Amino acid sequence: MAVSRGRMALEDRAKQFMPFDALKGLREALQEKERILEERRLLSEDQEEELDRTLHALRPGEEAEIEYYQGETRMRLTGRVRRVDSSRGILQIEDLEIPLKELQVLKRKEEFLSP
């Protein structure tokens, strides 16, 4: 004789097909391990002056390559400059606003295309 169990609720049915993460947190731990942490380098006075000159020469729409710190991670980005806001201390490339104090390297398109 077969036993009738009745209908299962929709929420319970959906739970049957949810992905199962047997090693909770492993994916996040691996991503964290992939981050390259390096000690923050201080710019020399000459490097700061060069960075300042390049910042003042940048124009909206121009392509630039930058290196900057995001927390303890050194990041690299190439994109179009939207604006340089000295009063707020921000360089906006595409939709990303980067604090000027975090900049390490700034190259205008002509600089990184020329030999």
Q: Tell me the span between the first and last alpha carbons.
A: 84 Å
Give a short account of the largest sheet.
Answer: 5 strands, antiparallel
Shape: elongated
Q: From N to C, what is the helix and strand string?
A: HHHEEEEEH
Structural class: alpha+beta
Oligomer: single chain
- Residue ranges: pLDDT <50 for 5 or more in a row? none
Q: Please tell me how large the radius of gyration is.
A: 25 Å
Strand order across the largest sheet: 4-3-2-1-5
Strand content: 25-35%
What number is the mean pLDDT?
A: 81
Tell me the helix content: 25-40%
Tally of strands? 5
Contiguous helical run count: 4
Keywords: Coiled coil
Protein name: YolD-like family protein
Pfam families: YolD
Organism: Candidatus Choladousia intestinavium
What features would you describe in this structure?
It is a single chain. The protein contains four helices and five strands. It has helices at 10-15, 26-34, 45-57, 109-113; strands spanning 63-70, 73-85, 90-93, 96-99, 103-108. It has a five-stranded antiparallel sheet. The protein starts with 9 loop residues before the first helix and ends with a helix.
Summarize the structure.
This protein has 115 residues and is an alpha+beta fold.
Task: Name a few traits of the molecule.
5-stranded antiparallel sheet, 4 helices, alpha+beta, 29% helix
Give the topology, please.
Elements (H helix, E strand, L loop, with lengths): L9 H6 L10 H9 L10 H13 L5 E8 L2 E13 L4 E4 L2 E4 L3 E6 H5 L2
Antiparallel strand pairs: 1-2, 1-5, 2-3, 3-4
